[in-house]
Please model this.
Amino acid sequence: MKIDILTLFPEMCEAVLSESIIGRARSAGHVEINCHNIRDYSTDKHNHVDDMPYGGGTGMIMQAQPIYDAFMDLTKNGEEPYHLIYMTPQGKTLTQERVKELAKLDKIAILCGHYEGVDERVIDELEPEEISIGDYVLTGGELPALALTDSICRMLPGVLRNDEAFSKESHFDGLLEYPQYTRPPVWKGREVPEVLLSGHHENISKWQYEQSLERTKNKRQDMYDKFVQN
Ligand code: ADE
Model:
């Protein structure tokens, strides 16, 4: 899979995506990620990419042309089209279900807005899927784009080292994960649940499933209701 991020802060994105699991996944060739600077597509002699809003108001608006040209440049060699996503608090809230669907695509481009927003005409022209990471407002689309990229990449084959973790997660689809423990067996007087030390795989799986159910019911009644309805 290929993910191209269109941003005014490519170094910020690159720094995060070069570390840890995603950094290793890139080096191993499980995913190709490129961060492009929208400013490189400015036709203004001072490299401006934003201007004041028509009709007045505070803040600056990102201009349509550099965004459009940056996106068009991705497919300049007659490559297959990208699925374009625009990170915005006005979008549909991201879910794990949507992440799984997006992870099946070959090519995704992610547009990060900044300042007070982007000229609506480039949205009308490119018709991106609009995605929000929650009902709160950040200063730009970079952190949301990084969250989206991370969540997609960990679903790609070969990215998670532990295949077991991945299959367990899909097995408990729609539920929160059960509690996990590691050594020592007793810490500050708190013991690891006995069943986990028993070596009895069937009992362990049963316990983990029950814990998942209970946790989801206690912490996320909305998820639990959805799970029991299905
Ligand atoms: N840009 C600013 N806030 C955002 C959010 N909550 N989700 C996606 N993009 C954003």
About this structure: The radius of gyration is 22 Å.
